[in-house]
Each structure stands twice: as C-alpha cells, then as structure tokens.
Design brief:
The protein has 442 residues and is an alpha+beta fold. It folds into three domains: 5-131, no CATH class; 132-231, DNA polymerase, domain 1 (Orthogonal Bundle), CATH 1.10.150; 246-440, Orthogonal Bundle (hpI Integrase, Chain A). It has 15 helices and ten strands. It has helices spanning 21-29, 83-106, 113-147, 153-171, 183-196, 201-220, 246-254, 261-276, 280-285, 321-331, 346-359, 390-402, 407-414, 419-425, 430-440; strands at 5-11, 43-51, 54-64, 69-70, 75-76, 291-294, 299-308, 311-318, 365-372, 375-382. A three-stranded antiparallel β-sheet has the order 1-2-3. A three-stranded antiparallel β-sheet has the order 6-7-8, with no helix packed on it. α3 (113-147) packs antiparallel against α4 (153-171), α8 packs across α10 (321-331) and α8 (261-276) crosses α12 (390-402). It comes from Parvicella tangerina. Belongs to the 'phage' integrase family. InterPro entries: Arm-DNA-bind_5, DNA_brk_join_enz, Integrase-like_cat_sf, Integrase_catalytic, Integrase_recombinase_N, SAM-like_dom, Tyrosine_recombinase_XerCD.
Length: 442
C-alpha cells in the first residue's frame, strides 16, 4: 500500500564500545547470554519508520539500560521499575504518529517525507518532554554535586541562577528534554528569556553558556548521544564599556573620607584593584606575605594565585608606586599572614563603591544601550550608580590599551586567555579615536 509505514523501536547504543556486534548478535540468536556485551549506561530509545522507501528516525527522549529492553518485542522489560509507564508512552508515540498520518491520507493528502519527519519529532519529543523534565534536574543536581568541589563560589552561584531559570522555563509551560536541546529548543528559550524574563541578550547568553557546559558533561557521561546543543549561539553582544578616566581616578583617590573611615578603606582597596587589574575575589585573598621585592628588577610584585575553574596559577603582578603606598599603609605592624584588606561581602563593597563615587563627583549622565530579543533597551543613570568593583578591572584594561600596553602583557596580568575577551573591555571613545588617527594622518 502506498501509505503503509513500518514502525520499530530500538536502542541508540545497545552494545558497549569495542564490542563485535556481529558476534554478539550471533550468540544471542543461539540463546546464549550476552550481558557482558551490553552497554552498561542508559541509552536512548529511538523510533524508526520506513515510509515510501525512506527510513526516518527520531529519539523518543526515553532512556533505559540495554538489559531492560526486549529487542524482539521492542518494549521495556518488567524488570524496569517504570516499565508500564514507559511502554504506554512508546505505544502512545506510535499510535499518535499513525493516527496523524492516516488523518492526512483520509483528507486526500500525500504526506511528504518532511511532513512525516516533523510529525515524528512533535509526537516523540512531546511525550518524552513530559517524562524527562524531572530527569533534566536530577541529572543537573548530580552534575552540581560533582562540580561543587572544583568550582569557585561565584561559579556555583551562577549555576544555581541557571537552574532557577530552567525551573521557570518549565513552569511557563515549555518542554525540557535532554535529547532535544537543539535549535528548536533555542528558539523557545530565547523567546522565554526575552519576553517572560525580560533578560537582556547578554544575560541570556550567560544562561546558554551554563547550559552548554552542562550538556558537554552529559555527553561525556553518555546521558545524551547528540551535540546539537553546540549550534546554539552564546556570544555576548558588544556594548558600551564603562570605565574610569584618569581625572575620575584621581578624584576618588584624593577624596578625604576621614568622616567615614569605612569608605576610606574600600576606596583604597578599589584604587589598588584599578592599579592591578585583578578580580575582587583575588583582592580579598591577597595576604601581606604575597607582596615581594625582586632585587634584580628592583620592583615590588604581588604573587597572586589566580583561579580559573578548578585550576590555580601563580601570576606576578607588578605593583605601581600608588599600589605600594596602599600596601605599606595596610601592612604596617601586622602579621605577614594577615589579609591585606578586611573581609567584606561583594554586595557591601559594591554599595560602598557607589557611595564613594557619588562623593567624588562622578555625576555625569551616561546612557548604555542593550537588547532584549530585538527590543532596544536604553538605560540612563548618573555614572556613580553604574560603578562596581568590576569597573576597576575594566579601567585597568581600557586605560592600559589606550596608553600602549601590549595586549599580551595585559592578558598575562589579568589572566585572560584570548584577545576577544580583552577587546570586550576596550572602550575606544571618539576623543581617543580622533587623537590616534590624526597622530598619523596629519
């Protein structure tokens, strides 16, 4: 019959890697045990359909151990605790595809190959998504349990934020299936982030990077068999970079905070960060004993142990005269194993920095433009309101590049791996562009 379709459920990877599958199947036909050849990890159940002499296949999103799947009956064995639920879902997928196919035939239509494939994907992934939503979070929690001992506290918090975002995604009625994290998913997630969460595109990109890192781990652990997620874009949009001018740095440096000693300490810490280009976490971990003098170069250095993921690397940060004045101020008459600056939460530090900048007169209005989806979002505030500890790092890079420090030197100090990361911080304003162009073209 012209419209006849043959259906088959099968395992994506039934046998373990390196198995002689011909030999294993021969033994199976002879009724001999083949347990030692079976894949020890859960693998996907796919559905394959022969239609008009073409073979089409899609993943159902359901995963089981090979020992729990009957190849001849194409069903999950009773030894699996959820066998009834899974088998009902497989039957529902098959009957739903079959019914939609015949519905088109009865209307006098001849479904194309593309139409049948689309029906298969909609029905298979639709059923699987309802089954696998909890699996996504169970697997993610396993991932976090494994990674929590190797990642920094801030990175852990970023992943907690990502998990909350994905929970909200599901609560909003979207499907979440580990075997369907692809461009179709991306379109839905992008819409959700822009329209329901009102995320700026760069915030969405950060969530996607968390997702892709998690997917890489799932692929390595054989939870998923595809890498479609790699096609999802995660590059941040370039925008205006906020940094401090030399006049603003001097205004902050020279402001008298005797009336609020707390702000004076944070101000000194902020200036030290501007002169060294390090993250606030590194600044807070700096010990007096980490400051050293090199007799050969006659230069003071800060031996900073920069953390990147689970790795730690010692970097020698040259200290300017201003930075050393601050070191001497806070190291005097204190044990060498003391931290240079007092411990304080990042939130409190950023609040103090805003107050410091307001006192120092950083009240010019600045406007930054970002995008949420395709919607342009313009934010206008006084400059002090936009200053955080991270602006110190941006200032170090921006002013360094503007004043001729080579990119590779800046990258060595800041710990950046590629030039794109450094260029992201560079703000070439109109005055600087004009000055540099006219320096050559008189």
């Amino acid at each position: 019959m012209k419209y006849k379709m043959n259906y088959r459920f099968y395992l994506e990877k039934r046998f373990k890697k390196g198995t002689n599958t011909v030999e294993a199947k021969r033994l199976e036909k002879q009724g001999k045990p083949i347990g030692k050849y079976l894949n020890p990890n859960e693998t996907a159940i796919n559905i394959g359909i022969t239609y008009n002499e073409r073979y089409l296949k899609v993943g159902t999103g359901i995963r089981v151990l090979a020992k729990h799947f009957n190849v001849d009956k194409q069903r999950v064995l009773s030894s699996h605790p959820d066998c009834v639920e899974i088998n009902n879902k497989l039957e529902h997928i098959k009957s739903s595809i079959k019914n939609r196919h015949y519905s088109l035939v009865l209307k006098g239509k001849t479904p194309s190959i593309a139409t049948i494939k689309s029906i298969m994907e909609e029905e298979a992934k639709g059923i699987a998504a309802r089954l696998d939503t909890t699996d996504f979070f169970k697997i993610f929690d396993k991932y976090m349990e494994e990674k929590s001992k190797m990642i920094k506290h801030q990175t852990f918090k970023n992943y907690q934020t990502f998990r909350t975002c994905m929970v909200d995604f599901v609560k909003a009625g979207y499907k979440l299936n580990i075997d369907a994290i692809d461009e179709v998913f991306w379109n839905q997630f992008y819409t959700f982030c822009a329209e329901e969460k009102n995320y700026l595109n760069n915030t969405t990109a950060k969530q996607v990077r968390c997702l892709k890192t998690f997917c890489n781990w799932m692929y390595e652990k054989n939870y998923i068999d595809h890498q479609e997620y790699k096609k999802i874009p995660d590059r941040e949009e370039d925008g205006e970079i906020i940094y401090l001018t030399w006049d603003e740095i001097e205004a902050i440096k020279n402001y008298d905070f005797d009336f609020k000693p707390r702000l004076g300490v944070v101000r000194d810490q902020f200036i030290f960060q501007i002169h060294t280009g390090q993250r606030i976490g590194d600044i807070l971990k700096c010990k007096i004993s980490d400051i050293m003098f090199d007799a050969d170069t006659k230069q003071h250095y800060w031996k900073n142990y920069q953390e990147k993921g689970s790795r730690t690397k010692a970097t020698y940060i040259p200290l300017s005269e201003t930075a050393m004045q601050i070191v001497n101020k806070y190291a005097e008459d204190r044990p060498t194993d003391s931290y240079l600056f007092p411990s304080k939460s990042r939130q409190a530090i950023n609040g103090d920095i805003k107050e410091i900048c307001r006192y120092a007169g950083l009240d010019s209005e600045i406007t930054i433009t970002r995008y949420s989806g395709k919607k342009k979002v313009s934010i206008t505030k006084e400059k002090w309101e936009m200053i955080t500890s991270h602006i110190a790092r941006k200032t170090f890079i921006s002013q360094g590049l503007r004043n001729g420090i080579p990119k590779d030197i800046i990258m060595k100090i800041t710990g950046h791996k590629d030039e794109r990361s450094v260029r992201h911080y560079l703000n070439l304003d109109k005055e600087f562009i004009s000055k540099e162009a006219l320096r050559v073209w008189k």
